[in-house]
Design a protein that fits this description.
elongated, 1 helix, twelve-stranded antiparallel β-barrel, 2 domains, Porin, mainly beta, seven-stranded antiparallel β-sheet
């Protein structure tokens, strides 16, 4: 019995010692060495847009300029993306794994120079986007209600980019409908270089108050990506389109159209406040040289992690509307949304 007590005591002491050593061992095993001699420890999350993201227990998530990094080490393999000739193969749109190499240490003596690496720990196919909803309802001396929703999704895959958008607006004052319109679009961008891309697109539109049963648009063109980073995105595209319109009170029309598009987003306070402006313009040649312009602009304010508050002003202009309809439609939208990356 005495020997058994000694055995239990020794076993408890060894267990306590092992737990103490384990708890005293730093949980962060990745290290980043900067050009100025500083060293950061944590867990390497990713590197994108020349920003290295490091998760730490002393400062939360830290972002480091990739150009300031001298070398880094990791306890586990890092998936690094080094663009080469093989990225031009179309199958990279679906897989892309042949461009990824796993390493544990990167630096001046590593086989891959830091300057050649464009991403770390990013999947070949990535989905980003936002979902926003808003609305209101009043009763009593006046009765009114409104609802709006918007979804924007972007699928990134090396030289390919797929942009999907959908919007719906409904408004009612008393028994009168004041707004009912919807839009869905799909755009495919193929980057022939880092900034120049070929764009193909299709769009469907409906608007009850404009007597528009359906407008479908298909086309293609060339685009230029001025910026695409975590803070700023700016792109412009121009091209030709074919427009087919069906109205309830006027003949259907088909027309070639000149088209341009601009997309701009900028984080004036990173991860907190972002402003945006998006618009598309059309010149419908065989429809009385009609000029159409759809734009939405506003601000998104992060309230908690990926949840945000959205304030937006939308403008839709048609210089040749259906008979008896106004040229302008404007709306101010307030809502909440979710952003995922």
């Amino acid at each position: 019995m005495h020997g058994y007590r000694i055995y239990r005591s020794l076993r408890w002491q060894w267990t306590t010692l092992i737990l103490s050593l384990w708890l005293s061992t730093p949980a962060w095993s990745d290290e980043v060495y900067l050009l100025n001699g500083d060293r950061l420890s944590g867990t390497i999350v990713k590197m994108e847009d020349r920003l290295l993201t490091l998760q730490t227990d002393y400062g939360g998530e830290i972002k480091v300029d990739w150009g300031k990094v001298q070398r880094l080490t990791s306890d586990g393999p890092l998936k690094i993306l080094v663009p080469g000739e093989s990225r031009d193969v179309f199958r990279s749109f679906f897989y892309g794994a042949h461009d990824l190499h796993e390493v544990r240490e990167l630096g001046p003596d590593s086989p891959v120079p830091l300057g050649d690496i464009t991403a770390i720990n990013l999947e070949p196919v990535r989905l980003t986007g936002t979902v926003t909803i808003g609305g209101n309802s009043t009763s009593g001396n006046s009765r009114a209600k409104a609802f709006n929703g918007a979804t924007r999704l972007t699928l990134h895959a090396h030289r390919q980019r797929l942009i999907m958008e959908g919007k719906y607006n409904y408004g009612q004052a008393g028994d009168q409908v004041t707004a009912r319109n919807s839009m869905a679009s799909l755009k495919h961008n193929y980057f022939v270089s880092k900034q120049i891309f070929i764009e193909s697109f299709g769009m469907l539109e409906k608007d009850t108050l404009q007597n528009l049963q359906l407008r479908n648009t298909i086309g293609s063109g060339l685009g230029y990506q001025f910026y695409e980073s975590a803070r700023t995105t700016l792109s412009l595209s121009v091209g030709l389109a074919h427009v087919n319109e069906h109205f309830t009170n006027s003949p259907n029309t088909q027309t070639p159209s000149g088209r341009w598009s601009l997309r701009w987003e900028h984080a004036i306070w990173p991860d907190r406040v972002k402003v945006f402006h998006r618009h598309e313009g059309f010149w419908d040649i065989n429809a009385g040289n009609a000029f159409r312009f759809n734009a939405d602009q506003g601000v998104r304010i992060t309230v908690y992690k990926t949840l945000y508050f959205n304030m937006e002003y939308d403008l839709r202009l048609n210089t040749q509307p259906a008979p008896g309809r106004q040229k302008n439609d404007e709306s101010v939208i307030f809502g909440v949304g979710y952003e995922f990356n």
